[in-house]
Structures are given as structure tokens and as C-alpha cells.
Amino acid sequence: MKTLIFHSLETSSAKKLALDLSGEVELRKNHYRIHTKKDFDIENYRLSSDIDLNIFDNNFDYQNIGLMVSDMDSTLITVETIDEVAKEVGLKDEISLITEEAMQGQLDFTDSFKKRLSILKGTNNSIFESVYRNKVKLSPGAEELINYFKSNQIKTAVVSGGLKFFAEKLQTQLGIENCRANDVEIINQSMTGNIIGNVIDAKEKAKYIGELCDQYKLKENQVIAIGDGANDIEMMKIAGLSVAYQAKPLLKQYCNIQINFGNLRSLIDFFDVT
């Protein structure tokens, strides 16, 4: 028996899909589940639907998840913060192109980050605060999702290939317990173009998950990882649950959950055991 999560309460569409799958419809709190013995290719149904569809793995213990690790830019928040900083100094077009190519996996992330820093050399860090206050918006459902995990004693972390300033601000705003991001050198309030420590690339993100698992005495299959771009691939490979949120095509290949239309709250559907 296979179970398909239909992330909506749109009854007629759920029943139509169940009929096509020769399945039974089960109403849950915020979604439908369709149980079927029929073999099917979920990608074919995703292509013809504007509602998120995911397989509910009946053999996976969702209640055993102990840690959520999420990317920041275009995941927990709606923007790429380094692009917004660049916009303030008239460099957004140049920076955004590099950011997009890196997230699509077309450029080495470490090289691309260092290149963006070199372009931003001399930028006054006083604009960081105004960018966070005026440009950074939470992705829909982000706060509800974090609060859900915290209320269920699931540890939380943000790991970002972006700037540490913004990751720490977000950490404070949402009450996230752990944070890691790029620490850039600032001298006399100006960006020097240098980074302090390692660039938080895909391997560093996966390494951070390992460190947190050791800290909390968890196994990697007890981790849910959320991201949107190529820099998240390595942590998706090791996490028990890997989530592509409005993600680039390359990342989707490595994820067992996709949220393409709905918001981050949709992930709570997997933990509905009532």
C-alpha cells in the first residue's frame, strides 16, 4: 500500500486523484492522504498539478525526527540577502547573476562567494541592518514551522552560504537554537572582501549536520534538511528527510519531499499522526 499526501483541502481534486489511482481518500487536519495499491510515477502527477504532492513513506518513523536544519536565503526568507546588499550599492545585477549561477550548480560555490565578496569590497556594513529591517521577509509558513518543531522538542538550526549577520538576526527573530554562516571580515565598518574561516559550501553544510548530530546524540536519519539550491545537495544526501522548497531543478533530484506551490507549513502534514 502506498500513501500519497495531497497538500490541500480541495476535496474535489483529491477525490479525482484518488479515483485515478484507484485509491481511498483520508481526510487529515490540513490535507488529504490517498492510499492506493496502484503503482504510479509521482512526477507525472506533479507535472499536471498545481497542488503539492508527496509520498508518505509508511516505513519511515517521522516521529523520530530530532533535528531540523534549514538553509536561509530563499528558504526561511524570501530573498537572497547578499543580492539585497548589492542592490543598496548599485551592484545587484552583477551579484545576482553570480548568485543564480551558483544556486543552479553552474559555478563552484566557494569561488562564486569569494567573487561576490571581492565585488562588494569597500561596502559599508551599516547597510546590513536596514537591509534586514526593510528587505528581509519570512517565507510563508516559516515561523509556524519553526514553532511547531520547537513545541515538539525538535532541535532547530539555520545553516547558510550567506552572511553571518543575517543568519544570526534570523536566528534571534525565530528563536532558532543553532546557526552557522559565512563570517566576513569588516575593518572600519567596511567589507574587506575577505572571509574569516571556511566558506559555508555544500560540504560544510553536511559537516555541520554531523556536528549537530554528535552534539544532540542523534543519527543522520533523524534529521530533516530544507533547502532550495545546489549548495544544499550534500546535506540532502545524508538527512533522513530532504526537502526541496521552491527549489532549483538540480536540487530536486536529491530530495524525497518537494514543496513547489504551498508554504513551509505543508511539512507539518508529515507529522500528523492523529
Structural commentary:
It contains 12 helices and 11 strands. It has a 7-stranded mixed beta sheet, sandwiched between helices. A 4-stranded antiparallel beta sheet has the order 2-3-1-4. It has helices spanning 11-20, 42-47, 72-76, 81-88, 92-103, 109-119, 127-134, 142-151, 164-174, 202-216, 233-238, 249-252; strands at 2-6, 24-27, 32-36, 53-56, 67-70, 155-163, 178-187, 190-196, 223-227, 241-245, 257-259. The chain is elongated and about 65 Å long. Helix content is 39%, strand content 22%. Helix 4 packs across helix 7 (127-134). The chain has 2 domains: 1-59, Alpha-Beta Plaits; 62-274, Rossmann fold (3-Layer(aba) Sandwich), CATH 3.40.50. The protein is of the alpha/beta class and 274 residues long.
| CATH topology tier name of the largest domain | Rossmann fold
Biggest pleated sheet: 7 strands, mixed
Per CATH, the superfamily of the largest domain is HAD superfamily/HAD-like
Coarse structural class: alpha/beta
Note poorly predicted spans: none
Number of domains: 2
The backbone outline, from C-alpha atoms, is elongated
Number of helical segments with 4 or more residues: 12
Q: What proportion of the residues is helical, as a percent range?
A: 25-40%
